[in-house]
Amino acid sequence: MRFGVLGCASIARRRMLPAMLRQPRVELVAVASRDAAKAERMSAEFGCAAVHGYGRLLERDDVEAVYLPLPPSLHGEWIEAALRAGKHVLVEKPLALDAAQARAAVDAAVAAGRLLAESFMFLYHGQHAQVDRLLAGGAVGEVRLFASQFGIPPLPPGDIRYQAGLGGGALLDVGVYTVRAASRFLGELEVVGSVLDVDPVSGVDLGGSALLRTPGGVAAHLQFGFRHGYRSNYALWGSRGHLQVERAFTPPPELRPLVRLETQGRREVRALGADDQFANIAGAFASAVRDGVPPDVFGADIVRQAALVEAIRAFAEK
Ligand SMILES: NC(=O)c1ccc[n+]([C@@H]2O[C@H](COP(=O)([O-])OP(=O)(O)OC[C@H]3O[C@@H](n4cnc5c(N)ncnc54)[C@H](OP(=O)(O)O)[C@@H]3O)[C@@H](O)[C@H]2O)c1
Asked: Residue ranges of the GFO/IDH/MocA-like oxidoreductase domain (predicted)?
């Protein structure tokens, strides 16, 4: 799958482009920037072409798919442009700011006949399938509660996450992972409560918490923020025990993540297998296109995720 990249984003340079070079199913063709010199520097680092301007990259016939790591408020416009140009699109999270935007993006993918996916790369780490096996083996009994936290220390003042107009805020940045993890393990959810800690100066939320529930009454308590000591975990608490994954969302490829298991009278820490989630998502996306999966194969997940995030915000603003 021949990829082009829109924007010399930090996540692209630090994680996704190195992973694409490790992934044999992917070829990195070109990187585009608003700034020609920036594109040149990045292209030299990764051995691909430099393009000045996102539109010009979309005009290239040698680009089949686009990786889109722009600030969240720009996702909608560039998803549409990339689909119109006939490209498959892998978009950084959060793909959309709300459910209507998510639905519009999925509809546009169907109309264009091109695959659209949200880059929740943590879903492509093998540790969660190992957790599934532990749960299926009765490690915690029947699940009663899900909990997840993702928090990071403060970022440099100019960061896109502090800019309301660019789709900043902790809910859209780190909170979305906890929401996606809850859906991954519990399925259908509704939001029953939330708080957001909004900074009066920047207007973005710096942290928050949400309570969700399944139709069967299993609760998910989510906590997130970016003025917090680093935490990136989820836990399932069941009728027989408790299981916690310690590096749930951003484990580096060489790390063997730990899972802590507690049952009556017994505590155990297991090291799960290391995995390369960025290379995996790029490879899975390429394979999905080659296998001819329907363009909206991820559509229901994309819309459900955006609707839950929108409901968390709406509840907090009531
Ligand atoms: N999946 C993950 O693990 C992960 C981790 C971090 C971030 N992300 C997501 O990736 C996206 C980018 O995050 P990031 O931290 O990498 O951001 P970043 O370093 O600030 O990069 C964003 C890029 O967007 C382009 N851009 C276009 N218009 C812009 C504007 N008005 N202001 C600022 N930049 C603009 C810039 O590229 P040019 O100047 O080259 O045009 C810039 O380099 C976000 O959606 C974020 O949530 C995902």
From this structure: 129-243
Residues acting as catalytic residues: 93
CA–centroid distance, residue 32 to ligand 1 (Å): 13
- Within 6 A (CB) of ligand 1 lie 7-11, 33-35, 38, 69-72, 74, 92-93, 119, 121, 160, 166, 173, 250
Cα 103–104–110 angle (5° rounding)?
90
Tens of pLDDT along 74-113? 999 999 999 999 999 999 999 999 999 999 999 999 999 9
CATH number at residue 160: 3.30.360.10
Tell me how far the alpha carbon of residue 296 lies from the centroid of ligand 1, in angstroms. Answer: 25
Beta-carbon contacts of 2 under 8 Å, excluding residues fewer than 6 positions away, are 27, 29, 62, 63, 64, 65
Q: Backbone phi, then psi, for 49, in 5-degree steps?
A: -80, 155
Indicate whether 314 belongs to any domain. no
Tell me which residue range forms the domain holding 8: 2-122+279-297
Beta-carbon contacts of 66 under 8 Å, excluding residues fewer than 6 positions away, are 3, 4, 5, 6, 57, 58, 82, 87, 88, 89, 90
